[in-house]
Amino acid sequence: MMQPSELETTTRSVAKHPMNRGTNRLSTPSFHVQNHPGANSQPKSNIHSRPNQESSLGEKTVVNINHTNNTNNTSKINHGISHHPDNENGNPPKIQPRRGFLPVLQNHNFLALWGGQVFCQLADKVYLVLMIALINTQFHRGEETISGWVSALMMAFTIPAVLFGSVAGVFVDRWSKKAVLVATNIWRGILVLAIPILLWLTRDWHSLGSLPIGFLILLAVTFIVSTLTQFFAPAEQAVIPLIVDEANLLSANSLYTTTMMASVIIGFAVGEPLLVGVEKIWSSLGGTAGIGQEILVGGSYAIAGLVLSVLATNENQPTQQTESENTPEKPHIFADLQDGLKYIQGQRPLRNAIIQLIILFSVFASLTVLAVRLAEIIPEIATEQFGFLLAVGGVGMAIGAMLIGQFGQRFLHGHLSTYGCIGMAAALAGLSVFTSNLWLVLILVASIGIFGALIGIPMQTTIQTQTPPEMRGKVFGLQNNVINIALSLPLGLTGVMVRFVGLKSVFLTLAAIVLIVSIFTWYNSPE
What we know:
about 0% strand; single chain; mainly alpha; 15 helices
């Protein structure tokens, strides 16, 4: 019988073997000593006998873990002295994870999150179309323009993104992310469904100055809906790495980007016809006229909340305690924001990824303004059809997202973003030359979408993988904050630049900015 002293001697001999130095250390995993004539009992350690396995123990006892067919991340490990053809260096061979969309689509938690996103994105993109329709039918009088009303509405929608984008991330780190996802959608649904009731109750109220009470209600609802969205966005991004394996994050983000782009296309192309069609169907079913549109948008938010309620995030709630007493520590908003900023500054991959996302969204925001000017120049389309050009860009990004999700795992994230920056710069430069040819413009705008996917999806995946769970809310909150600013500033600056320097010069300037940022991040990349 092998005595404990012999086992210790054997373990030390294996640890001293050249093949087991450095990377292949003996640690706590279970080692299996196979039954043999000289070992008829189990030593009291983490060593268990394994039936149906053959092992030859001669002059030197061999501690061996044979190859198994266990599919649970149990690598084929051989800590023995003898060589194995599949493991010449004594290191455990890596089991390659499954790639592409199939493992992501087989993840029930991801399907729940993705299903919630479908309804939520639909409601988000159609919401502003609904508000503009309500302004046009409820408050528009005579020949006056509604541009002033719409501008006030857009401000109510944008201000929360600037004010609360970062702050929301601090609280998301301390709250249950599933609860945030469900509650924000349910409350947005309730607010939208309450709009017809609130407008009916205040129909006879006097105006506050020159503004009707009903319009102020729309502004208040829009402000609250946008504020809730600031909490939803970082919680959504923080949940993805909790329920999806790191090897499949690129595919998961590709599906998310595809869904987002599809919702953009719906919002720009068929948002208004969709609302009109739903209203007609609702009226034909005998419903009260004028509330079918609110039922579509509010119901979509509510359905998103219900779908997300079946999500299992398996998250560990942070339970920060004070040093002096066993009570939960109160949130320190500004200190937590500072921690998030310091963490981003100290991590080059995160910093580079956020910089590239800022430039990407700035280009897309500028493109919404430039598309109006392109529609004026191109003779085959009318000015008001500029949304058609943006929809083509959305189609391009959806195509790029699908390609990345299926094949992007073969490349480093930094390389993908570099290729995307070079391609986007080339497409922007091409638009500076071909501004009036419809088909070339469509191809180039679609190319911007495709190359934009090569930037956005790998960089978002980098942020998810490089950020520890306890920092994700802060980091994603700050990310959403700066991206919202990046989406807002170009809307005002681009129109001014087109007026003073011309359309072609603006496209060339954007191309140069993308190239400069690409070179900067490439030289500062740790890869």
